[in-house]
Automatic annotation (TrEMBL):
Pfam families: FAD_binding_2, Succ_DH_flav_C
Protein name: L-aspartate oxidase
Domain FAD-dependent oxidoreductase 2 FAD-binding, chain residue ranges per copy: 6-397
Gene Ontology molecular function terms on file: L-aspartate oxidase activity
Catalyzed chemical reaction(s): L-aspartate + O2 = iminosuccinate + H2O2
Enzyme type, top EC level: oxidoreductase
Record domain Fumarate reductase/succinate dehydrogenase flavoprotein-like C-terminal: where: 448-540
Main location: cytoplasm
Residues forming coiled coils: 460-487
Compartmental location: Cytoplasm
Length: 546
């Protein structure tokens, strides 16, 4: 089955949906999402969007906070563009109907009423625009409503992308090839319900597949975060960067019945204090910013405390604040904690670090373009240069909004240009010679082993020995998956297993390459930052690592 569209957007988070709405008045759009449209990291985002609206805040302060967090690897030009475009992009959401929290003050900006601003770790000012503690789901809900009502957007739920389709152009004089360029022409996509592979032919393809959290045993991410876009781009030959910089959120709820539930950084921003099992605060030992230090510092501090004490968790305590304030500021967190028998207004919350955000990804330019023609990447899938070695809290939704707008403007110009290259229909999926599998235990066994291996050996604190062990094991698993993949018919579980194995291998290779500690990458043999040799991105693509 061949489906033709102007835009193929793979992923349904804030980046993909925002882009779809910005181009759909002019072109046809197909959105492929592997479960339901609301299943995304965006819907789980609690804190908010960082942007300059406060009377005491400036673009320069936000820029500097981002650069400081990125630990020497941010692209300053990108940081300036994203920060300075933030307020306008947030106003776009307000125009769509997103309801952010408002203060009681009179407005000093070109919006109906002044926004209520929170503060999070690493920020020098209050600048977090939020909707209670459920910002992501408020944004996602409004975007989904508009997407479902747009006549030019077709939504394909329960469809998982398998691989990108690339074409090559060759100009020959006699027998000599003078140029050779790769173009993306669409993707092969598995219809999960009908177990059929569909061929999507598109003029413009956009990877907006989100993060890689499920590569690790413990994560704040939903089950869909298996690094699909990064893995597909790598197999297609695109350039990737900085995959060693995996952000571990310091505070996920620790409870046997809780799964992937994040305790927002905003709790610390509102006065929450990290304590050990004896009730003693400990962050003053690790940073002058104490509980408002950046996430990498806090995650390593908790990891150190747990290793020293042998305890299962530390605790986040905001019970010293007025109970009415806590319930009003964090209604979702309060209700969720109560479900597990924890009253956050009266007792501390048990927390542990968990894999949270991938700061690296598919390399893009200022307009979201990858180095494969007609292929763009946005959101967590992309490496734009904004985050560097560590993402500043609440800059992720900001980046998604700004780059969705940039991709929309640039791609509409390109697709409408008389010089735009269009290609014939893509070949259909070939499964000749494959059979149905009766050995699904291979998938579940390797899935579990990859995630445990990554948590134990490629986690918050790394070493040469741990990384070498991880590399050897992942290589064995990769060989098993490859043999299985080519012999049996495709399934959604196999697609995801193949992708997390690929991403795991890439993270390990990048981590082994960087012989220093910087931002989110901390290694015991090289505990110091080394600007003379390593103040540069880690670039990786097939057969190349630098």
């Amino acid at each position: 089955m061949d489906i033709k569209t102007d835009y193929l957007i793979i992923g349904s988070g804030v980046a993909g949906l925002t882009l779809a709405l910005k181009v759909a008045d002019y072109k046809t759009v197909a959105i492929v999402t592997k479960k339901e449209i609301m299943d995304s990291n965006t819907a789980l985002a609690q804190g908010g969007i960082a942007s300059v609206f406060g009377a005491l805040d400036t673009f320069e302060l936000h820029i500097q906070d981002t650069l400081d967090s990125g630990d020497g690897l941010c692209n300053r030009e990108v940081v300036e563009v994203v920060v300075k475009n933030g307020p306008e992009r947030i106003c776009d959401l307000i125009d769509l109907g997103v309801q952010f929290n408002l203060s009681t003050k009179e407005s000093s900006h070109n919006i109906p009423q002044e926004l209520d601003l929170g503060r999070e770790g690493g920020h020098s000012q209050k600048r977090i625009v939020h909707a209670q503690d459920m910002t992501g789901i408020e944004i996602e809900k409004i975007l989904v409503e508009h997407v479902k009502n747009h006549k030019n957007i077709t939504l394909y739920e329960d469809h998982i992308a398998i691989d990108l389709i690339t074409c090559s152009t060759r100009m020959k004089r006699g027998l000599v090839t003078t140029t050779h360029e790769d173009y993306c022409c669409g993707a092969y996509v598995l219809d999960r319900k009908n177990n059929k592979v569909k061929t999507f032919s598109s003029k413009t393809t956009v990877l907006a597949t989100g993060g890689t959290g499920k590569v690790y045993l413990y994560t704040s991410n939903p089950d869909v975060a298996t690094g699909d876009g990064i893995a597909m781009a790598y197999r297609a030959g695109a350039t990737l960067a900085n995959l060693e910089f995996v952000q571990f959120h310091p505070t996920c709820l620790y409870h046997p019945d809780a799964k992937n539930f994040l305790i927002s950084e905003a709790v610390r921003g509102e006065g929450g204090i990290l304590i050990n099992s004896s009730g003693v605060p400990f962050m003053q030992k690790y940073s002058p910013l104490k509980d408002l230090a950046c996430r990498d510092v806090v995650a390593r501090a908790i990891d150190t405390e747990l290793k020293k004490s042998g305890e299962d968790s530390v605790f986040l305590d905001i019970s010293h604040k007025n109970s009415g304030f806590v319930k009003d500021r964090f209604p979702n967190l309060y209700k969720k904690c109560l479900m597990f028998g924890i009253d956050m207004t009266a007792e501390p919350i048990p927390v542990v670090p968990a894999a949270h955000y991938m700061c690296g990804g598919v390399v893009t330019d200022m307009f979201g373009r990858t180095d494969i023609h007609n292929l763009y990447a946005i959101g967590e899938t992309a490496c734009t240069g904004l985050h560097g070695a560590n993402r500043l809290a609440s800059n992720s939704l900001l980046e998604a909004l700004v780059y969705a707008h940039a991709v929309a403007e640039e791609s509409l110009k390109e697709i409408s240009s008389p010089d735009f290259k269009s290609f014939p229909d893509s070949p259909v999926w070939d499964e000749v010679g494959t059979t149905d599998s009766d050995e699904l235990i291979m998938v579940t066994q390797n899935w579990d082993e990859i995630r445990r291996c990554m948590w134990n050996y490629v986690g918050i604190v790394r070493s040469d020995k741990r990384l070498a062990r991880a590399k050897r094991r992942i290589e064995i698993i990769q060989n098993e998956i490859s043999e299985y993949y080519w012999n049996f018919k495709i399934s959604a579980d196999l697609v995801e297993l193949r992708n997390i194995a690929t991403v795991a291998e890439l993270i390990i290779k990048c981590a082994m390459h960087r012989k220093e500690s910087r931002g989110l990458h901390y290694t015991l043999e090289y505990p110091d930052r080394d600007d003379s040799r390593w103040q540069k991105d880690t670039i990786i693509r097939r057969q190349f690592l630098n």
